[in-house]
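To the wet lab folks,

You asked to see what we're planning to order before we commit. Fair enough. Below is the target structure as tokens, and below that is the sequence we designed to fit it. If anything looks off to you, flag it before the synthesis order goes out.
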């Protein structure tokens, strides 16, 4: 699937779609996907953005969700990064467990039901060849992400209501912008609950000052649980040297796998290898089905002869 998406954004295709659409307009594109060549992925794209970002390695066309070991965060219900990955794969749902905004302390004064309105599922638009830079321990970050995750197109996340996090700059005691969002928070709730529509902006607001600055995460957020189908996946992320059995299962299902630290050349080479492997599984499956069908037909002929 990734190879197909890269082909779509290559210069020739880019010019064709740009020429057939007015600048700034959206156009629906349909790409063939990995599962036996039958699945299709449709999404709306802004042609101006597609043209401007093609070839920009610093701007990714994809959005990534990495899992972590959250047993220290949740006394009950926490799991390893691997188990969380498998749970998401099974349910096709990334849970929005709690809010992650600069008003978390103030939210404690609201009812639990209203706090939950700001719960978000978190993603990053890190380029695929730099995923390894977000994995492991990073000074100043309390959580440790691991090499298990999911990759979607940025267009699909946007269509699903996803939004880049908004960082409110308060460096050097620069409070004029922070004061404006503080007023926004106060105006958006009354008697312990949110009112009107202004509060809908709050889940995306992040602190940005000397003691707290995660703007480097290039975060995207989706309010409430994020649901997806297998056909919405570009590929999944697994450790390079591990999970051979799991990778075999994904290959049989037609789901591509990449690992943190791979260059784009490695990604394309590995996905091509995986595609050949998936085709091999399909051919073998069709062969078994054909043999089984002939056996049934032969048995039916013998049965009819006996009668």
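Sequence we intend to order:
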């Amino acid at each position: 699937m990734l190879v197909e998406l890269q082909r779509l954004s290559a210069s020739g295709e880019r010019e064709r779609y740009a020429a057939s659409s007015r600048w700034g307009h959206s156009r629906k594109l349909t790409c063939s996907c990995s599962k036996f060549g039958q699945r299709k992925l449709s999404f709306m794209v802004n042609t101006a953005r597609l043209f401007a970002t093609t070839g920009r390695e610093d701007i990714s066309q994809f959005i990534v969700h990495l899992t972590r070991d959250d047993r220290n965060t949740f006394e009950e219900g926490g799991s390893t990064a691997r188990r969380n990955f498998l749970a998401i794969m099974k349910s096709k749902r990334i849970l929005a467990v709690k809010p992650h905004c600069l008003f978390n302390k103030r939210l404690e004064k609201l009812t639990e039901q209203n706090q939950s309105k700001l719960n978000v599922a978190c993603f990053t638009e890190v380029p695929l060849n730099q995923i390894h830079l977000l994995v492991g321990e990073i000074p100043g970050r309390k959580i440790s992400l691991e090499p298990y995750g999911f990759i979607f197109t940025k267009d699909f996340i946007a269509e699903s209501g996803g939004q880049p996090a908004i960082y409110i700059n308060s460096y050097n005691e620069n409070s004029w912008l922070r004061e404006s969002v503080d007023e926004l928070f106060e105006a958006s709730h009354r008697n312990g609950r949110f009112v009107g529509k202004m509060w809908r902006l709050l889940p995306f607001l992040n602190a940005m000052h000397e003691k707290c600055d995660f703007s480097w995460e290039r975060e995207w957020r989706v309010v409430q649980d994020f649901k997806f189908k297998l056909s919405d996946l570009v590929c999944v992320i697994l450790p390079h040297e591990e999970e051979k059995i799991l990778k075999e299962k994904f290959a049989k299902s037609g789901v591509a796998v990449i690992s943190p630290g791979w260059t784009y050349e490695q990604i394309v080479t590995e996905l091509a290898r995986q595609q050949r492997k998936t085709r091999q599984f399909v051919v073998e499956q069709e062969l078994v089905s054909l043999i089984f069908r002939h056996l049934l037909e032969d048995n039916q002929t013998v049965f009819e002869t006996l009668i």
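Structural context that might help your review: Residues 59-262 form one domain. The first helix runs from residue 2 to 8.

Thanks,
Computational group
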